[in-house]
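Protocol check, entry for the methods section draft. Step 1: assemble the input record (protein sequence plus ligand SMILES). Step 2: submit for complex structure prediction. Step 3: store the structure tokens unaltered in the notebook. Ligand used here: calcium ion. Step 1 record:
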Amino acid sequence: MDKASRKGSAMQRRMSRREVIRWSAAAGAAGLAMSRWGMGGRPAGNQRPNFVFIYTDDQRYDAMSCMGHPFLRTPNMDRLAQEGVRFANAFVVNSLCSPSRACFLTGLYSHVHGVVDNMGTEYDHALPTYATELQKAGYQTAYIGKFHQGATAMPRPGFDYWLSFRGQGQYGDPALNENGRDFKAKGYMTDLLTDYAVRFLKQTGGKPFCMTLAHKAAHAPFTPAERHADAFPDAKMAEPASWKDDLSGKPAWQRELAVRGMSKKEAAANANKKVPDALPPETWNPTLASRLNYYRTLLAVDESIGRVLAALEEIGQLDNTVVMFASDNGFFMGEHRFHDKRQMYEESIRIPLLVRYPKLAKAGTVNRQMVLNIDVAPTFLDLAGAKVPASMQGRSLRPLIAGEKADWRRQFLYEYFREESYPTIPTMVGIRTERYTYVRYPEIQDLDEMYDLEQDPLQMRNLAQEPKQAETLGRLREDLDRLMKETGYRNPKAG
Ligand SMILES: [Ca+2]
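Step 3, stored output:
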């Protein structure tokens, strides 16, 4: 732990003691008994911020109109950016649904919290999460939406209110689970989740709360709300510049993925297809329905944000609430001829991250530090004045939200673990610095990758084999080894 973080932790400890004293005094004076949320009653709790953490599934970092999107309009995401901080360099440390969700919760890398793939593993319930710690600190906690870990829809530790579903769930008339009770709902998933979120907010009664609202959108099968089914009638999606990438000079598995497909079934069916050294060109379809529908699903998400903000205003808590908006991973829209996520390219590892909290954040700020999904949990605990467990690997974004100068990270570790269902995409471990990406594939014999993002932001030219780059490559390898050591890297799937 560096000096600044030690100082920060000491301050957190002092703050939490002060909080306890203040709370005890207030509760004592009012003659209130302990409730399930800690001290009963309203007084001191109102001084602490509430948290509303809204996140989507598979939303690209640039799928917002405030990022200059050509046809998607997201006035409420834009409002969060205009009235708060937009993190221009927000990343996930593992670009996959279940692992990233557990990273948000625990502030830990996948190889520590245990969720390394989408195959139904679950984080270790003994681990502290922002929910368990805020609950202990007297917050009312709610999880509403897609959880996508384990094999069950049942409530998880740390949440006073629970509304979720099993696995991926359905867009239309979904099966839901409310506080342990299974039932079938009528309606469109994004709208239903928003109804429950608004209902939760309206019954908070002045006690501090932390509500997570995790949307199913914009994940496949990309089903928009009926009212948005015909949105963007004239949209033509521009061909991404890296659609022309023939993947020559890059690892062979990437060309294999492009030629033979991603799933185990596709890979088996196409096993006889030859994998060339360079991909032949392919025609871009600017009106591909699945891609347009991906963007259409985000229209209901944006409306949902608007409804949540209105509900916060109605209960008089808007400016006392830290509203954070993010996504669990990015998504390829044909870049390098890829779809989906997982790979350590920018479109896959970058996420949107917006924070509105006018008590701390100056409106319309853009922060360019590298921030991560594992930073969310420590941020909430820090802002609540609760103790951030020393075991958490992320860092509190508080100084960045406040616009303070901070000695911040200049590189981070990225990891992905091969899934049985998508065997072509290998286990990878990499480092992203402010200038470079370097990734290696420890389980297969294939090329490493190295990109100079300053010279080659589209990641077209793999520098890992270029003699002139040997020194830089050597440094990146050393830095990666150090990060692996520091974070206790291991491959849990390798046993
Ligand atoms: Ca996802």
